[in-house]
Every structure is written in structure tokens, then in C-alpha cells.
């Protein structure tokens, strides 16, 4: 297979990675979770955070949080080291339409209640 064909085959994959907020997230269902950062990925097209939340029964569940792009995060004061594994955080975000443990980031605060970066994101920021 030639290089041109390989590039042509990869384009749909890249295109699918970027999607509309409204397709995946419900702007009427803002939720807040508290837990421990497992991973933080500062990468295109959207960053991601995985937070382990311990329920009232002691069961642990990982929540995946989609962030904005690194360029938007950086404009808001974020860096690749803004969150580290083991950090206790509170995350507020819009719940996935399918009800899974998947959020679109609105805001993160650290263990002392201080916001990470310069404040909350909106549903229109991409």
C-alpha cells in the first residue's frame, strides 16, 4: 500500500476523534465527583483525566473526564503538570448522554478548594 493510500485511510480516524459537545454530553446534567487523579493526558484533540472515585460502599470506580484542547487549557493556565497521579480533586462536569462514568470538564478544584487553572469552562469552548 502506498503512502498516499495510508494517509487517506487515516483521515477518517482523525476526523472522528473531534466531536460536538451536544452529541456526547447533556448540558442539563452537571455533576460533581470527588476522587484521586489516576491519569492526566495533555494532548490533542482533547486532553483527558481519569479520576478514581470511592463510593459509599467502598467500591472504586474510574471516571473519564474529557478536557478542552491543550491550547485552550494553556490559555486558562493549565500545564501538562497541572494534575498528577495521587492528587485529590473535585471535578465538575457535564454527564455523558449514555449515563456512563464520562464527563466533559467544567472545572477542577484541588484538595484545598482552589481552582486548577483560571476557572470554569463552558459548553461552547472546544
Name of the CATH homologous superfamily: Nucleic acid-binding proteins
- Total beta-strand segments: 5
The first-to-last residue Cα distance is 35 Å
Structural class, judged by helices and strands?
alpha+beta
Using the coordinates shown, work out and report the CATH topology.
OB fold (Dihydrolipoamide Acetyltransferase, E2P)
> Would you list the SSEs in sequence order as H and E?
HHEEEHEE
| The top level CATH class name | Mainly Beta
> Which regions are unreliable across 5 or more consecutive residues at pLDDT < 50?
1-18
User: Helical element count?
Assistant: 3
- Quickly give the CATH architecture: Beta Barrel
Q: Within the largest sheet, what's the order of strands?
A: 1-2-3-5-4
Question: Roughly what percent helix?
Answer: 10-25%
Average residue-wise pLDDT: 85
Approximate shape: globular
- Domain tally: 1
Radius of gyration: 16 Å
Largest sheet: 5 strands, mixed, barrel
Query: Roughly what fraction of the amino acids lie in strands?
Result: 35-45%
Amino acid at each position: 500500500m502506498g503512502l498516499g493510500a495510508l494517509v487517506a485511510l487515516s483521515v477518517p480516524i482523525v476526523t472522528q476523534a473531534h466531536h460536538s459537545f451536544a452529541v456526547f454530553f447533556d448540558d442539563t446534567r452537571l455533576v460533581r465527583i470527588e476522587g484521586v487523579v489516576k491519569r492526566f493526558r495533555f494532548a490533542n484533540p482533547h486532553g483527558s483525566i481519569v479520576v478514581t472515585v470511592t463510593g459509599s460502599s467502598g467500591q472504586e470506580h474510574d471516571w473519564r473526564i474529557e478536557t478542552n484542547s491543550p491550547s485552550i487549557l494553556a490559555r486558562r493556565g493549565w500545564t501538562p503538570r497541572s494534575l498528577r497521579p495521587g492528587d485529590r480533586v473535585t471535578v465538575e462536569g457535564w454527564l455523558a448522554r449514555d449515563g456512563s462514568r464520562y464527563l466533559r470538564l467544567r472545572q477542577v478544584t484541588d484538595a484545598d478548594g482552589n481552582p486548577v487553572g483560571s476557572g470554569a469552562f463552558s459548553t461552547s469552548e472546544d
